[in-house]
Amino acid sequence: MTIVSSANHVVPIRLAEWGEASVRLIHRHPTGEYVAELDLPAGWTMPLPANRALTLEMFVLRGELTIAGTTLTEWGYLHAPLGDELALSSASAATVLVFADQPRPTDGVTLRTVTTTPADWRGGTIAARDTGRSLALEVRDLLSVPATGQRTWLLRAGADLALPFERHRTVEEGYIVRGRYRLVECLDGGEMEFDHEPGGYFWRPAGIVHGGPRSRSDGDFVMLLRTPESLTVEFVS
User: φ, ψ for residue 168 (rounded to 5)?
Assistant: First the structure.
């Protein structure tokens, strides 16, 4: 079943592993994995212990975040596998998106950080390959694991983006970073429309048909997407 949520509708809580940060749990998996927005107060510091149980992906929505001497500003990204103890801090107030996952054998042991500049975006070549036409979208890869196809990336598009209905052989999850997007999910034998705005989130199991001509935006939007395996697209009527 597709899970649809929004950070805007979640009551903030505190979690011991994030200290004084205000935490909005967007989605928690039965396995202990979770997705959350963190509001970090100015001067916030927190160690990531070496014996932590979950691998972390973090994406800076607003403000800045410093880890291992590297400061990430808006749309900065980090992937922190299990390994050495690391120190996190934020000199000024910040909001950070966190994906906490069960460790994978392909995680490695090296911290990865990524910044995004205008030159880092590229055309949506995968969509062009699958549809036979060039679609008005751009992508920015943040994490890519060739051995499994695991991937985290940003997708940027405008109101003219039109996609047929599609489905995938893997789980897909997404978070709206900027703008608004109406996404149609085919659930319980019918089409359901979900109007996502910044903070909107979905988690979709393999095989769910979605998209179609009624999925659209009224302007430019940016979405962060993640898959644990290669994203194979099958277009359907």
Answer: -125, 160
